[in-house]
Write a structure and sequence with these properties.
Distance between the termini: 45 Å
Shape: elongated
Largest sheet: 4 strands, mixed
CATH superfamily of the largest domain: Urease metallochaperone UreE, N-terminal domain
Mean pLDDT: 83
Low-confidence stretches: 79-85, 96-107
Oligomer: single chain
Strand content: 25-35%
Order of helices and strands: HHHHHHEHEEEEEEEEEEHEEEEHH
CATH architecture of the largest domain: Sandwich
Radius of gyration: 32 Å
Number of domains: 3
Helix content: 10-25%
Length: 363
């Protein structure tokens, strides 16, 4: 079943303010909350769908990525199926009171967050591939305490207030409200002597540089996934991934359409009329011979095979050259005499017929 647009799910317009999005989600969350609809799978799915939509649209960076790239822009970043505990999202609206799923132990290891990095590439580098070095910060295991969170490595012990559940529950209307334990902050366990460097989290910020291989033929808006280079998860959880999004800089002389490259070349009207051969430059600075058929018209597209964009199959696209006729502004005396002779020989058309605009579109 196809996913519904997040704005459609919440019933808001694409230019909706953040408060409007929050109110829309709150209304749907109350209506379809599993505690209010016990055993109703349809209601539970609608609750999850609304929560997923709110996690993206309620976050400025995720919303921007979704607006620009759709579901692909937020894949693995929380939206489009990359969700964990719905209670944390629900709790952000209802004052950290989970209810649905809130009795889960929060001290279990969880996979870390995925990270996003945007780079701009020159047109040629995107076509032929390259390797770039990027620098960014990520959550990593604290080196001082080796991720234990404690000074002496003793780790955590069960919280005496919540007895390890991480939650203190109370009833409020139709909800079974569950709040994080005030002593362990929902962890279910406490550290008696926390590490000073990471303050007991077991995680510290790390600046790192890595080299990223950009494959040939990558298109604007695509991404390269670097597994395991995102944030380390809490409580020893596996790291998330790093998503490198590609933005391709426009070229002065070439443009791309799928696997083909397009450019333009000026030729004199004599070569266009009689035919001949000219040399044109390709994207990789080679010069190739291009045959000009006799009678070539202004705007004609001529093809050079396999000088386009490489694909994963190994085949390259083509280079298309748009012919632009160049009329001389100055003529020698002999040149003018020859053209006058040509006009007398071929005749002069002083009443050219009307031309349909569709015939010259794009020329």
């Amino acid at each position: 079943m196809a996913k519904r647009d997040y704005y459609e799910v919440l019933g808001v317009q694409k230019d909706a303010q953040k408060d409007d999005i929050k109110r829309a989600y709150r209304k749907l969350a109350i209506q379809f909350h599993p505690d209010k609809n016990p055993g109703d799978k349809a209601a539970e799915e609608k609750f999850k769908e609304a929560t997923e939509a709110y996690e993206v649209l309620g976050d400025d960076s995720k919303r921007q990525a979704y607006d620009q790239f759709g579901f692909a822009g937020v894949e693995g970043m929380g939206g489009a199926g990359g969700f964990g505990d719905f209670s944390s999202i629900f709790g952000s609206i209802f004052g950290n009171q989970g209810g649905y799923g809130a009795d889960r132990r929060s001290d279990r290891s969880q996979r870390g967050s995925n990270l996003r990095y945007d780079i701009e590439l020159p047109f040629e580098k995107a076509i032929y591939g390259t390797t770039v070095e990027i620098a960014y910060s990520r959550d990593d295991t604290c080196k001082t305490c080796a991720g234990s969170g404690s000074v002496d490595g003793s780790g955590r012990k069960v919280c005496g207030t919540c007895r390890g559940s991480g939650q203190v529950r109370r009833s409020s209307g139709f909800f079974s409200i569950s709040q994080p334990c005030p002593l362990c902050q929902g962890q279910g366990s406490v550290i008696e002597k926390p590490c000073r460097d990471c303050e007991g989290s077991g995680i510290s910020k790390k600046k790192q540089k890595i080299k990223v291989t950009i494959p040939p033929g990558v298109d604007d808006g695509k991404r390269v996934t670097i597994p395991g280079q995102g944030d380390v998860g809490p409580n020893g959880g596996a790291p998330g991934d790093l998503y490198v999004f590609i933005h391709v800089r426009a070229h002065d002389y070439f443009e791309r359409h799928d696997q083909d490259i397009y450019c333009a070349a000026r030729i004199d009207f004599i070569t266009a009329a009689l035919g001949g051969e000219v040399s044109v430059q390709t994207l990789d600075n080679k010069r190739v011979k291009l045959a000009i058929p006799a009678g070539t018209q202004h705007g004609k597209l001529l093809r050079v095979k396999e000088e386009g964009v490489p694909s994963s199959s190994g085949r390259k696209g083509d280079l298309y050259v748009k012919i632009l006729l160049q009329v001389p502004q100055r003529l020698s005396r002999r040149g003018r005499e020859l053209l006058e002779e040509l006009r007398k020989s071929e005749g002069e058309n002083l009443e050219p017929p009307a031309v349909k605009l569709s015939e010259v579109a794009g020329s």
